[in-house]
Amino acid sequence: MAVSAGAGASRFGFTTGQVIQEFLYDDDVDPAVRRTVEEATGNELVDEDYGDVCDGAVIWWRADDGGQEDLTDLLVDAQSNLDDGGLIWVFTPKPGREGHVVPADVEEAARTAGMLATSATSVGAAWNGIRIAARSRSRR
Known about the structure:
There is one protein chain. The chain is of the alpha/beta class. It has one domain (5-139): 3-Layer(aba) Sandwich (Rossmann fold), CATH 3.40.50.150. It is 30% helix and 26% strand. Mean pLDDT is 89; it is low at 1-9. This is DUF3052 domain-containing protein. Pfam families: DUF3052 (PF11253).
């Protein structure tokens, strides 16, 4: 299912002017989902090596990217770059697709990283998304 830019802004929680960092980009990512995020923010996604504070992050996570501990580490790394209150989306292949990850594994990785999985949705023909709320810097 394609997502329009207006729907993307509200669906993903990203707004105009935000800088969104992207992790684990590969040939299999959904270009329509990436475009939706870029249209919602008005900015191109920045890569893993971006060295400044970001407003949010998207992670394309597949079973062969590592285990739950690896995802926990990546969530901690992504959170360390976020401005206060930034959102992280973990996109995983849908059931039956190569690289599918059980949502409970993403939720457990988020919990271990001190974060909370708040919602899940279909984000494209081949990908699901789980929204992760990062801890506020003021509460650390």
